Amino acid sequence: MIEKRHEKNSGVGDPILKEDRKRPCEDSLKNGRTDAEDVKEMPELNDDVDDELDDEQVCLDLSEPSPEVMEYARRELGETEDVKCKSLEELRDMIYEKGECLPHRMDDDFLIRFLRNKYFNVNKAHQLIVNYYNFKEEHPEIHQDVNPLEMKHIGEDDVMTVPAYRTECGRRIMIYRLGNWDPRKYSVEEIFKATVIVLELGVLEPRAQIFGGVVLFDLEGITISHAWTITPQVANMVIALMVTAFPMKTHAIHILHQSWVFDVMFAVFKPFLDVRMQKRIFFHGSNMESLHKHISPSRLPKRYGGTRDELPYYKWIDSLSKVHKIVKEMNQIGYIIPEEIQKQLDETAED
Asked: What's residue 30's pLDDT?
């Protein structure tokens, strides 16, 4: 029996956002619609917020969402204080009553991410949290007893990265360059490990729970050896992380530099994609102007016709391993925290 706990955590500070009614954020999708079809604009990050940060300065925004972000949550997700309180209690009771999963946490800050992902539909949020824990149980090799600090090779090979800045809509961007990955050097399992680490870190941000994220797949340099690694099981795992088993919305997937090899890989994925998800995939080839219709160049790396620098993957891990709250969160879900890091954090907390 799970012991009932009613915890409520509060954040501090608000990010500054503004409404921009000149240009819709076209990477935002909901119910199969692009923003070009949706007259409701999203709040856009105030340029001053991102521009104050160096492109290699890492931080997670753990503060409470600003009024502008919460207005978007009310309008698009149906989140109000009454709905939030009622849905949290209903979800918590449903978890106890059904007993289909044993969450490591039952506090509001943890459960709210599942409700936001499912627009406060309690039944769907419950199924998502069940899927989340089932996925962990079925694939312990990609998140249990994993030391995030040992995943530096993913960054050194420039296989994946997460820029320090967001899109103009306030969404995080994950970039994969699969052509840089040598399957002979390490397995696709390593990429899954690195992906789950980033997702677990990203979903700690309340506004990321509300806005979701965007994924760029740069397929320049992929070969048939990459295609051979994409089995139906791998495709199913990718879809689980992006759609069915993780509380982070994938609002758009942008495919760059695709070739005939991609067609081979996509044929494995397509049976797992419903119509709604297929509408969230955009193909750009080498046409960066096409990509810029969705994400402003001011929010993209220079190699994609943007103006910004990039952040190596390992710098995320190195920097965030110095934040006590983040380390504690990661430790709770099974990640290994080296003794020296834990000791340093404990000493800092005592001071």
From this structure: 36
